[in-house]
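In response to reviewer comment 3 from the previous cycle, which asked for concrete evidence that the modeling workflow produces usable outputs, we include below a single protein chain processed end to end. The sequence was submitted unchanged, and the resulting structure tokens are shown without manual editing.
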Amino acid sequence: MDYRTAEARSALMARIRSKNTGPERMIRRTVYRMGYRFRLHSPRLPGRPDLVFPSARKAIFVHGCFWHLHGCPTGRLPKSRLEFWGPKLEANTARDRRNQEGLATLGWSVLVVWQCEVRSPEKLTRKLEQFLGGGPSCCDQHGREAMRRRTSHAPK
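The workflow returned the following structure tokens.
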């Protein structure tokens, strides 16, 4: 039994975003600081990955632990309305698998970063470096050169 009114629950659920979430923005800042440049939510790719590195054919999905059934303490099933939430969340994970398989079929490498992983910036950075590998030049050949040009005009 839900302890909120239908109107209060509706207002709460309406505030949940699918794009530009806190964890996604944190990952974007981290990747940008690492020197990588990327595209956001490419409609041309299955599942519209959150971050896309076209020249490296790499994509990153940022998943909320609850919405994508991670299995960590944050990702547990709710105690009420299991008949609704069970199939809905399982459908989300099935869609995630289809999207990842679709990207792999197209020759893309995929990384899933979970909401709970954002809590440890050092581990997150290592995971992103390992996935993106080889420094920013592998994902954006002009990124470092453009950065060098911008900073070389600064007064000394």
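The first strand starts at residue 39 and ends at 40. We consider this sufficient to address the reviewer's concern, and the full set will be provided in the supplementary archive.
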